[in-house]
Write a structure and sequence with these properties.
Length: about 400
């Protein structure tokens, strides 16, 4: 099977993805969920003309010429409106957030006034329209303010509450089942024996999937036998996405694909023209999509960033995680690239022209996690890209891990 380009592979993975079903959740549980439907305001905000300042509500005509002395006939505070109506030559003491009393159309700030018992003198200043927040100044009932597919963060949840919503329609979180494979693996915290290493990739994969909006389940470590692999896959029957780590190539000990095919998986591809991450497998098992990630830690996490995160977001009906690579400048000269698209781990610093200056980390070996932890972006070198000098424009992708 010829190696696919990254773009073709992602297109196959996302082909005909249908978003998960909507569900209603209480607004206090909606943070980090994804809206399933556009959200329109049920209320008008503010619901009345309100004072934006502490001062006096007046008739603008009464303070057109200063100084002006007015009779104070009452008080209005937030939650405690003035129930009467102000006439010519009258004012109402008012506080921020209070409704503007009937008969008034302006607010003068207290710093421009002098109070003497039941009278107030407006000594100086001018009418500032910003001292009154008019009804509907923020939004009006029926106005659509949040689009379907929008991730609900702190700003969105506060806005939705102000719009009058107590529950929100969100997409069910895609269920991602993650299985590590290999006789050489031991669980984190265990001391490896001869020829063994600690299993760590699954934790980074799960963290990235959850950050994208998924619900994850860790299926543990499957040993390199058909029986053990099959037993572990049986635990993933309700998953929307099955992720395997390791064993996705075509070597004598790579049993993941044969076991999944025996369970009914239709293999789509297992080879991508990229580095790191060439042996990435994709297939369909019933309604689930299967991603077989490479076992090398860096390969595994970069493939998660490039393929699993967009798949989770597509299942949520959300826009792509990023609108594509952004432009930066190479901090050093770069060699010509070969036939595989290269995602170089790099660090960035602000440049004098507003573009980041990016420099590859000390090693691009796909087994090394420490250099990956140093990086904050991926410097993308397209297939057969020519050598570049320092300062050349290069595409980068931010790292989310």
């Amino acid at each position: 099977m010829a190696a696919l380009s990254v773009e073709d592979a992602l297109a196959r993975i996302l082909d005909a993805v249908a978003p998960t079903q909507p569900e209603l959740v209480a607004i206090d549980a909606a943070h980090r969920r994804t809206l399933a439907q556009p959200l329109a305001a049920l209320l008008t905000q503010p619901p009345f003309d309100a004072s934006a300042m502490d001062g006096y509500a007046v008739r603008a005509a009464d303070v057109a010429k200063l100084p002006a002395t007015l009779a104070v006939i009452g008080e209005a505070a937030a939650g405690h409106p003035f129930s009467g109506s102000a006439g010519a030559g009258q004012a109402v003491r008012i506080f921020t957030g209070a409704p503007l009393p009937a008969g008034t159309d302006a607010v003068v700030i207290q710093e421009d006034t002098a109070r003497d018992g039941a009278k107030v003198t407006v000594r100086e200043g001018r009418i500032d329209k910003g001292h009154v927040r008019h009804r509907g100044f923020d939004f009006r009932e029926g106005e659509t303010l949040l689009a379907a597919g929008r991730r609900i963060g702190p700003r969105e949840v506060a806005l939705a509450a102000a719009m009058g919503h107590g529950t929100l329609p969100v997409r069910r979180r895609p269920r991602v089942a993650i299985l590590s494979t290999g006789d050489e693996l031991v669980a984190p915290g265990e001391r490896p024996g001869p020829g063994q290493i600690v299993s760590s990739n699954h934790l980074g994969v799960a963290a990235l999937a959850e950050a994208a909006g998924a619900e994850t389940s860790l299926l543990g470590i499957a040993r390199d036998t058909r029986e053990d692999l099959d037993a572990h896959f049986a635990k993933a029957q309700d998953a929307d996405i099955i992720v395997t780590i390791g064993g996705a190539s075509v070597g004598d000990h790579d049993l993941v694909a044969p076991v999944l095919e025996a369970r009914g998986m239709a293999l789509n591809f297992w080879n991508i023209a990229m580095r790191p991450g060439k042996p990435l497998m994709f297939g369909r098992l019933g309604r689930a999509r299967v991603l077989g990630l490479p076992g090398n830690p860096v390969s595994s996490l970069i493939c998660t960033r490039l393929f699993l995160v967009p798949l989770v977001r597509a299942l949520l009906g959300a826009p792509a995680a990023d609108a594509g690579a952004v432009q930066a400048r190479a901090g050093v000269s770069l060699e010509a690239n070969g036939p595989r698209q290269h995602y170089m781990r790099a660090t960035s610093t602000p440049g004098s022209d507003g573009l980041a200056v990016v420099t590859p980390v000390r090693s691009q070996d796909s087994s090394l996690l420490a250099p990956l932890a140093e990086a904050d972006c991926l410097l993308v070198r397209p297939m057969h890209a020519p050598a570049l000098s320092a300062g050349s424009l290069v595409p980068i992708l931010p790292l989310d891990f």
